[in-house]
């Protein structure tokens, strides 16, 4: 495990925490004083199990999952009090998803803090998963600083406001497969058929897989993705956009 008494590591973590721009006096005080016990907790949020089997981010990630859901529920209650429970659940699912966490982790460049063992360092397929997991662990650490959700919401509410508006304006972009399935059911059609073909063997290739969607035996759209799931999602989004353009939806 990285020695937290190493001045370079302490400065790296405090600089990163400052970059989050959490508008909280008590959080700023932790950064200013470089509180070692608290910095140690944050350091753990950046350690992958391939580096240390015992002291790593897994417990903080588990804790952060619950914190994230509570903070998102708190945000939705304040921002969209008129929403039904079903609508709240749908929105929350989008703003706490694994994809959202990876996007947030990439945005804050958390990867530069993550310490991995040799096995994980060479695994490009796990890169995004680790970014999302470490981000969730970071959220757990922020809560544990004060046993309060206040700083989590101070950090994430502005981000959620922007992301929520995008989702509410065009939900099909975020749940295109569900929208397409519901459309087929409303028309009395069979469920869409997704046909996947592997085009490339290269990991991370954005066109590694192609997906064709058939509805009632007719091919309606084709798209690519670096995974089966991404190819299917992209093909469904392309089809929904096509249907919107021609007035079918």
Architecture overview:
By secondary structure, the protein is mainly α. The chain has two domains: 7-168, Ribonuclease iii, N-terminal Endonuclease Domain, Chain A (Orthogonal Bundle); 176-245, 2-Layer Sandwich (Double Stranded RNA Binding Domain). The protein is built from eleven helices and three strands. The chain has a three-stranded antiparallel beta sheet with strand order 1-2-3, with helices on one face. α10 packs across α11 (228-245). The longest helix has 22 residues, at 58-79. It is globular. The model has no long low-confidence stretch (mean pLDDT 91).
Secondary-structure map with pairings?
Elements: H1 7-19, H2 25-33, H3 36-44, H4 58-79, H5 85-95, H6 98-107, H7 118-121, H8 127-146, H9 150-169, H10 176-186, E1 193-198, E2 209-215, E3 218-225, H11 228-245
Antiparallel strand pairs: 1-2, 2-3
User: Globular, elongated, flat, extended or rod-shaped: what is the shape?
Assistant: globular
Instruction: State Rg.
Output: 21 Å
Find the count of extended strands (DSSP E, 2+ residues). Answer: 3
Identify low-pLDDT runs. Answer: none
The CATH homologous superfamily name of the largest domain equals Ribonuclease III domain
The largest sheet has its strands arranged as 1-2-3
Looking at the structure, the CATH topology of the largest domain is Ribonuclease iii, N-terminal Endonuclease Domain, Chain A
Helix content: 55-70%
Order of helices and strands: HHHHHHHHHHEEEH
Our count of helices gives 11
Largest sheet: 3 strands, antiparallel
Q: What's the level 1 CATH class of the largest domain? A: Mainly Alpha
Quote the beta fraction: 5-15%
Query: How many domain units?
Result: 2
**CATH architecture annotation name of the largest domain:** Orthogonal Bundle
Mean pLDDT: 91
State the end-to-end CA separation. Answer: 54 Å
Q: Pairing-aware structural class of the strands and helices?
A: mainly alpha
């Amino acid at each position: 495990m990285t020695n937290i008494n190493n001045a370079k590591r302490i400065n790296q973590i405090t600089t990163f925490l400052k970059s989050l721009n959490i508008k909280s006096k008590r959080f700023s005080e932790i950064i200013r004083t470089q509180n070692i016990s608290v910095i140690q907790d944050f350091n753990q949020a950046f350690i992958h199990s391939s580096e240390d089997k015992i002291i790593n981010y897994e417990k903080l990630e588990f804790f952060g999952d619950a914190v994230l859901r509570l903070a998102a529920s708190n945000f939705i209650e304040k921002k969209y009090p008129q929403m039904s429970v079903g609508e709240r659940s749908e929105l929350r699912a989008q703003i706490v998803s694994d994809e959202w966490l990876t996007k947030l982790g990439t945005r804050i460049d958390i990867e530069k803090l993550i310490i991995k063992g040799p096995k994980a360092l060479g695994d490009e397929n796990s890169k995004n998963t680790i970014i999302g997991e470490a981000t969730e662990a970071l959220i757990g650490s922020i809560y544990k600083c004060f046993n309060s959700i206040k700083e989590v919401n101070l950090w994430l509410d502005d981000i959620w406001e922007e992301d929520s508006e995008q989702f509410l304006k065009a939900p099909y972009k975020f749940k295109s497969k569900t929208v397409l399935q519901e459309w087929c059911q409303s028309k009395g059609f069979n469920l869409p058929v997704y046909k996947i073909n592997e085009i490339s063997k290269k990991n991370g290739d954005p066109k590694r897989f192609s997906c064709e969607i058939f509805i009632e035996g007719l091919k309606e759209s084709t798209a690519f993705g670096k995974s089966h799931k991404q190819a299917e999602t992209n093909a469904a989004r392309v089809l929904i956009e096509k249907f919107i353009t021609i007035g079918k939806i």
